């Protein structure tokens, strides 16, 4: 499982700037998708060999007792409790403040691994920085500059040193698709899980009370094996599952990461909210196969149904790669079709794409529509092979490929998805340019 880094600190110390730097490598993957707004607080990142989730607790105001600020404060509190590593940011230019000391006291109480990060340290002398912040009693501060990037790689390496590098889920360990059922509070996730699992055979269900890893529930349906990745601490009472924890964004994201297929549950009785879009965006960023379930279809009339469909089109247009189902988890209607789409999305995410066929499809695409010329450069796409699964990665070799515009990359993605019938999964394209400075000129 990818470790979760949580950024905490008073306003203006540079949390968002550090967050952006820590997640930047991933931005390019999901750039320019119509309708997609990135969640500025939750992201995936990679520095060197290290993959991680990163959470920015910006706006964290522990004094708010009601309303949206209170909600945010609660999620921040949860993030602190669920962090694998806390990075406590202070401002090297303004020095230590009483507010820093209050936050430090709160973080110490959490008992989570904690690193003191002195930001805006470009041009500052290490000894000065160390002396100033030593008083916090949090050990030697790590000096960084979020804007310039100084010290950020060392910071990540040091903070994550104790976590194992390899976090690919062991494919052999479970049979069949690993499914994460996600969505904001009250959309009907537990009801859906019961509809899918409750009546069927649950192969083994133990409660590893202390483990912080997501819990897995293997089950069988229609003679096929699946594993459910739990997001809410499910407990079984008789035949039904109950969620015993409140909604947690971090658990949701970790479950998505660990799954092959995410089932995003939406509530037809309510408008699509930012939080729906953010979870959807995260699934896309993680490259996970997706099935969208619009739940509570029984509770809405035809007029509302039309509105919902239009609302989805407008706000979740970037999910057009996924299949949508309009169901009633409560009445159990539409669930078999959901599972069919889960199977199809899983097959697409794990598909083997042969090199000769990929190359043929690539060449046909280029014949149909050549990549645009960029100044004196005309990108040349020569051959393609598969570079990974879940999501499928297509590696394209050629020259001057760095000049290929995003729109053309999207065209290639669509072409591969159609040719290999990969409905339900995002697909990634990586370009590898041969290092011959003349090869690309014509
Ligand atoms: N000199 C310098 N300025 C920085 C650095 N990192 C951030 N800043 C500046 O500090 C200011 C605050 O940065 P933010 O990233 O918005 O701070 P924040 O902690 O997210 O603030 P809130 O969203 O209010 O919690 C901005 O003007 C940044 O440009 C740094 O490494 N060096
Ligand atoms: N009419 C209707 N109500 C439903 C349906 N599915 C769930 N509900 C109701 O919606 C409410 C929330 O359902 P839950 O399954 O607890 O939702 P959840 O997403 O697990 O909620 P959290 O555990 O808070 O995240 C309950 O009152 C359900 O009975 C449905 O298909 N139709």
Q: Which blocks of ≥5 consecutive residues have pLDDT under 50?
A: 206-212
Distance between the termini: 47 Å
CATH class call of the largest domain: Alpha Beta
Number of helices: 12
Strand percentage lies at 15-25%
How do the strands line up in the largest sheet? Answer: 8-9-10-7-13-14-15
Ligand identities: guanosine-5'-triphosphate
* Cα Rg: 24 Å
Mean pLDDT: 85
Secondary-structure arrangement, i.e. CATH architecture of the largest domain? 3-Layer(aba) Sandwich
The helix fraction, in percent, is 25-40%
Give the helices and strands as they follow along the chain. EHEEHEHEHEHEHEEEEEHEHEHEHHEEHE
Give the biggest sheet.
7 strands, mixed
Tally of structural domains = 3
Protein name: GTPase Der
Function: GTPase that plays an essential role in the late steps of ribosome biogenesis.
Domain EngA-type G: 3-167, 177-350
Binding site for GTP 2: 183-190, 230-234, 295-298
Textual characterization of the structure:
The chain is an alpha/beta fold and 442 residues long. It has three domains: 4-160, Rossmann fold (3-Layer(aba) Sandwich), CATH 3.40.50; 171-349, 3-Layer(aba) Sandwich (Rossmann fold), CATH 3.40.50.300; 355-433, 2-Layer Sandwich (GMP Synthetase, Chain A, domain 3). It is 34% helix and 23% strand. It is built from twelve helices and 18 strands. The protein has helices at 15-30, 67-82, 98-110, 126-133, 152-160, 189-198, 249-258, 274-286, 302-315, 335-349, 355-368, 406-419, and strands at residues 4-8, 42-47, 50-56, 85-91, 114-119, 142-143, 178-182, 201-202, 216-221, 224-229, 234-237, 240-243, 261-267, 289-295, 323-326, 380-388, 393-399, 428-433. Strands 8-9-10-7-13-14-15 form a seven-stranded mixed beta sheet, with helices on both faces. Helix 7 (249-258) runs parallel beside helix 8 (274-286) and helix 11 crosses helix 12 (406-419). It is globular. Mean pLDDT is 85; it is low at 206-212. The site of one guanosine-5'-triphosphate (GTP) has 15 residues, from helix 1. Belongs to the TRAFAC class TrmE-Era-EngA-EngB-Septin-like GTPase superfamily. EngA (Der) GTPase family. It comes from Pseudazoarcus pumilus. This is GTPase Der.
